[in-house]
Amino acid sequence: MVAVLAEGRSRGTEVVISALTIIEAVHARTNQSRLSRLLSGLRVIPVGDEEARAASRLPAIVGLHGHKYAIDAAVAEAALRQHRPVVMLTSDIDDMVKLCGDRVRLVAV
User: Fold this and answer.
1) How far apart are the first and last CA of the chain?
2) Within a 10 A sphere around the Cβ of 92, how many other Cβ atoms?
3) Counting beta carbons within 10 angstroms of the beta carbon of residue 16, is it exposed (0 to 12), middle (13 to 18) or buried (19 or more)?
4) Dist. CA 64–CA 34, nearest whole Å
5) Grouped pLDDT means (10 residues each) for the chain, 109 residues
6) Is the alpha carbon torsion for 89, 95, 98, 99 positive or negative?
7) How many C-beta atoms surround the C-beta of residue 103 within 10 A?
8) Domains annotated on the chain, with CATH
9) Is 29 left (phi over 0), alpha (psi -120 to 50) or beta?
10) Which residues lie below 8 Å from residue 11, measured CB to CB, with a gap of 6+?
11) Distance of CA 75 to CAs 10, 11, 29, 31, 35, Å?
């Protein structure tokens, strides 16, 4: 993943991440120093009231419901707000296809 992000930056691509993705990705073995270095090269998108309200509408629009989709909906909402073209690296292609449709190119990781 580090190499993929470095490649994007070397091409002049803005690499963004939802603040919620950081929470989702961190675990007991996370090297905090390495994580900080990685995040310093990214634009972290906050999730405020407006973003949360927009994200809360996405699952219902596509027939999903429940807390299982909360973070995915916030990440999808952030992706949909970016300037096109948008490429999303995700381990959850199925849900992201439903939430983003064809407006975001999805790449499985």
Assistant:
1) 8
2) 18
3) middle
4) 35
5) 82 91 92 91 94 96 92 96 93 95 94
6) negative
7) 13
8) 2-83 (3.40.50.1010)
9) alpha
10) none
11) 23, 23, 23, 23, 19
CB atoms inside a 10 Å sphere around CB 83? 6
**Both structure tokens of 57:** 């509408």
Query: Residue 33 is which amino acid?
Result: S
The residue count for the chain: 109
Q: Residues 34-66, buried b or exposed e (16+ Cβ, 10 A)?
A: eeeebeeebeebebeeebeebbeebbeebeeee
CA-based nearest residue to 46, from 14, 87, 77, 68: 77
| pTM beyond 0.85, yes or no | yes
